[in-house]
Amino acid sequence: MDLETRRVVNEELWRSIVWAGIGLFGWGILAGETALLEANVLTLLSVPFLTWTVLTTTMIGTRIVTGTELQVQSKTGLSLFVTLGVLAGGVASLFLVAVVGYSALSISSLYVAISAITVLWVWHTVFPNFEPRTLPSSPFISSQRPLHSRQNRIMNRYPCK
Fold it and tell me: CB–CB of 130/78 below 8 Å?
């Protein structure tokens, strides 16, 4: 295994801890809330393990085959990522209130507080220190510009003469 492949595998194995946690938590909720999935020890351990294995090997394979880092490279991308995270939190909050039966007031309060803290943290801590990645040098690119939008990437790919 070469050094680059080893680095990718190492990074993705560390990131896969999140996949394992989501698998254990998510499949545990599904097994407890639905009648379609039998809640026994084999199911609650094997299904999250299979989920973790598939997601981790898919991420490792994707990064090795494509050679990309699969990381946010612009402030716009970071904003989109935070927005999708807040929306996913809202869906999870609705699930906890509508299906599981938690108190709407407590879940709503937690959702608003966590979302506000996350957005403020990104706005005041992450954005000021975030440096966009630049395009690699190429004879077809007239200047090195940060990747801010799709339009900039297209303009850099096909410069006007």
Answer: yes
Rounded distance, CA 75 to CA 78, Å?
Answer: 5
Residue 31 contacts residue 44 (beta carbons within 8 Å): yes
Q: What is the reported pTM? A: 0.53
Choose among 13, 136, 12, 3: nearest CA to 69. 12
C-alpha closest to that of 29 among 19, 20, 37:
37
Residue 99 tokens read as: 């299906």
Task: Report how far residue 19's alpha carbon sits from residue 97's, in angstroms, rounded to the nearest whole number.
Answer: 24
End-to-end CA distance of the chain: 45
| Structure-token match 């005041």, residue found | 124
Question: How many folded domains does the chain comprise?
Answer: 3
pLDDT tens string 86-137: 999 999 999 889 988 899 999 999 999 999 999 999 999 888 888 776 545 4
Q: Are 54 and 12 contacting, i.e. CB atoms less than 8 angstroms apart?
A: no
Token readout for 101 is: 């039966």
Residues 91 and 63 in one domain: no
Dihedral (Cα; 46, 51, 54, 57), 10-degree rounding: -100
* Claim to verify: residue 35 and residue 10 sit in the same structural domain: yes
Q: What is the rounded (10 degree) CA torsion for 77, 82, 87, 91?
A: 120
